[in-house]
User: What shape does this take?
Amino acid sequence: GIAAALFEGISLALLYFVINLLSNRSFSSIDLESYSFLSDDLISFLKQLSFDSLFLFCLISAILFQLLQSFSLYINKLMSKYIEARCLSKVTSLVHKKILSLKFPFVSKFKVGDLSNYVNQCPITIRFQIESLTSIFISSTISIAYILLLLNISYKLLFLVFLVVFLVRLIPKKLYPSI
Assistant: This one.
């Protein structure tokens, strides 16, 4: 999740740099030293590139970081499936042990098939919980990366984004009254 947010932030920063590059129409007017996250070696490498080469380098780098983000999201889902499988086997065996250890007078109060339905709901519940937590973590880290990028670009832009989000969430509530 954190790697996906980092790669998303880097690719957005590269696209922001490309937009600055295109709006200035010349590479010499951009002060690379103002970008604090760039190393001196990278700055000297970028200064050696022509305008077209730098533009292509930034676009290809942004695409590569998007590919790295997709790969990290894939690894994240793979790890969550692994955790899900381990939890599923442990919890399912615990549920079976608990149900089999119940006394007959207690078990006889259930309808036929109710206990098996409870056992069958266990994998679905575990899968839902793990996928939900993973999704919340990934979405929040990517959201934090977006907010940090917007803070770096402009406070006014961040305020505008929050205003638009607020209006987008408010308008449907006003148009469709609660049922």
In short: Residues 51-100 form the longest helix (50 residues). The radius of gyration is 26 Å. The chain has a mean pLDDT of 79. The CA atoms of residues 12 and 62 lie 7 Å apart.
